[in-house]
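Q: Please design a sequence for this.
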């Protein structure tokens, strides 16, 4: 993925289909489907990532297996790995993230800081981050 001006990251959902599917098709909750449908109206599919408690940042077309791992529980993807993934997808602001010990709070901050380029949309549209 190239560096983008608008990158949208949406949280995964607890309700999932069994087996392996594209990330966009794995999560089945109405809330997840609603978020995804909205994000598809404001940016292209290559600029939407799902934040998974097990896999971290996943592209919509990435094949992943069903899992049971909440991002705030032990065994979740680490903050260090998330930051490495963010740097790999060239998210603006990722290189300036401070080094911190893994904590669930920091994992939440990742979705609301400048790491998520979607803040540009929030500012322009006065919407609340999902």
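A: Design:
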């Amino acid at each position: 993925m190239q560096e983008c001006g608008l990158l949208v990251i949406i949280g995964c959902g607890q309700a999932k289909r069994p087996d392996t599917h594209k990330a966009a098709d794995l999560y089945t909750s109405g809330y997840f489907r609603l978020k995804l449908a909205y994000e598809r109206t404001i940016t292209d599919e290559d600029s939407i990532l799902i934040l998974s408690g097990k896999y971290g940042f996943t592209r919509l077309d990435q094949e992943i297996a069903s899992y049971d791992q909440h991002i705030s529980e032990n065994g979740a993807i680490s903050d260090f790995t998330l930051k490495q993934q963010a740097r790999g997808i060239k998210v603006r602001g990722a290189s300036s993230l401070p080094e911190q010990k893994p904590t669930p709070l920091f994992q939440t901050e990742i979705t609301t800081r400048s790491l998520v380029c979607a803040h540009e949309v929030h500012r322009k549209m006065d919407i609340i981050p999902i």
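Q: Thanks. Anything notable?
A: Residues 8-125 form one domain. The first helix runs from residue 23 to 26.
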